[in-house]
């Protein structure tokens, strides 16, 4: 064990003593590693930003049915229970999903589209409230501005129909429990409980809604069928499978699969390019460092042979170039990280604004730095094998010839 400690101490002192040559090795490694880290930072930053925008915007995960169908509650629940579905809720007929809203703070009456919502709705993920009954409503930003309403206000909702030769209109007082962000939609939309959406359709179809006191023909539905639905995949990577599953059932749908596939293709291609450059650079540096260590061992042949004479065996002598290679790997990696961090700030603060991009162009997470260190150490060990092979050939008698 003392031999190992002595070799570690001697290799370190020799490394420090020849600081000029050691510094050249460190700068050479940093010159190879830093550009690769910058390249990977650009790849990771740009692609991650593109994927983040796809994921954060729920519209990109929405799967919209084309045309009208017949979907019962069992079918809806079946997809709601799937791991790749984040949210699904039925929709009624488009012509029936509208209501007239009027407020005391605005003179105009606006016709507003109704959209059923529930807990977990991706469109309303930034809101803490969702309608819990027929008398609560969430307005889009556009509708709220037109009616001059804020959270907590009451709004008068009315519906009209032609029933049994007479025109009828009913009113309903709804409480605005929240206002959706402007990014959700630019249309005038009212997010409501599914029961209110169904009640609206029943009323316009001439059927009664006893819970609200609306008269009409009795409702006799054994199994309710919905003409459409609103569905969101859990991630952009689930969209393709969901589209395929729905199409296998004969449901025609529309999704942004092409945009998602483009981003995934860019990610794959940039990854391939990066690894090609990384492998070429790492191989070139490994052979360069290995050749330098080989020459260094030849230059110190006399000193190393004397160590053999003092009783150090071959495996301990081989540690000499191996440890010096690891010193170079650690210092070169540290210098490369400092260079990368400097250029990361320059790229993100100067280049991104000039390109009119509101995103981070270049960044790495902590795991990437550790992976870079691990790969650097592996490359250094590979290079040390070359020098170690030469060190293993040194015999004790080699030093005696030079005395």
Report on this model:
By secondary structure, this protein is an alpha+beta fold. The protein has two domains: 2-55 and 262-400, no CATH class; 67-251, no CATH class. The protein has helices at residues 2-17, 19-56, 73-80, 141-147, 194-204, 239-248, 257-299, 301-309, 314-354, 366-392, 396-400, and strands at residues 62-65, 71-72, 85-91, 98-102, 109-116, 136-139, 154-163, 166-179, 189-192, 225-226, 228-233, 253-254. It has a six-stranded mixed β-barrel. The chain has a four-stranded antiparallel β-sheet with strand order 3-11-1-12, covered by helices on one side. Helix 1 crosses helix 9, helix 2 (19-56) packs across helix 9 (314-354) and helix 7 (257-299) packs parallel to helix 10 (366-392). The model has no long low-confidence stretch (mean pLDDT 81).
């Amino acid at each position: 064990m003392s031999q190992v400690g002595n070799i570690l101490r001697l290799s370190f002192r020799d490394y420090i003593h020849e600081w000029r040559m050691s510094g050249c090795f460190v700068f050479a490694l940093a010159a190879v590693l830093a550009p690769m880290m910058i390249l990977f930072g650009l790849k990771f930053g740009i692609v991650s930003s593109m994927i983040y925008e796809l994921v954060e915007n729920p519209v990109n995960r929405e799967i919209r049915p084309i045309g009208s169908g017949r979907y019962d509650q069992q079918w809806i629940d079946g997809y709601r229970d799937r791991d790749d579905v984040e949210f699904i809720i039925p929709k009624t007929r488009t012509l029936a999903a509208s209501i007239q809203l009027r407020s005391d703070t605005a003179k105009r009456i606006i016709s507003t589209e109704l959209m059923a919502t529930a807990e977990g709705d991706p469109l309303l993920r930034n809101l803490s409230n969702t309608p819990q009954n027929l008398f609560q409503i969430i307005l889009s930003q556009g509708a709220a501005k037109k009616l001059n309403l804020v959270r907590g206000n009451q709004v008068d909702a009315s519906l009209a129909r032609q029933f049994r030769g007479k025109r009828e209109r009913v009113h309903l007082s709804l409480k605005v429990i929240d206002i959706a962000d402007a990014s959700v939609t630019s249309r005038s939309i009212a997010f409501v409980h599914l029961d209110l959406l169904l009640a609206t359709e029943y009323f316009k179809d001439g059927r009664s809604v006893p819970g609200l006191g609306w008269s009409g023909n009795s409702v006799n539905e054994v199994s309710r069928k919905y003409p459409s639905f609103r569905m969101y995949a859990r991630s952009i990577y689930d969209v393709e499978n969901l589209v395929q599953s729905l199409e296998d059932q004969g449901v025609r749908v529309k999704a942004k699969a092409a945009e998602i596939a483009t981003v995934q293709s860019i990610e794959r291609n940039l990854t391939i390019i990066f690894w090609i450059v990384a492998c070429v650079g790492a191989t070139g540096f490994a052979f360069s460092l290995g050749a330098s260590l080989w020459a260094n061992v030849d230059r110190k042949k006399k000193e190393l042979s004397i160590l053999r004479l003092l009783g150090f065996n071959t495996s301990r002598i081989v540690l000499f170039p191996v440890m010096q290679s690891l010193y170079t790997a650690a210092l070169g990696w540290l210098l490369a990280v400092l260079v990368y961090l400097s250029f990361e700030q320059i790229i993100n603060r100067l280049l991104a604004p000039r390109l009119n991009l509101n995103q981070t162009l270049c960044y790495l997470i902590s795991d990437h730095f550790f992976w870079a260190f691990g790969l650097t150490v592996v490359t250094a060990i590979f290079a040390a094998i070359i020098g170690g092979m030469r060190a293993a050939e040194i015999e004790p008698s080699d030093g005696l010839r030079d005395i």
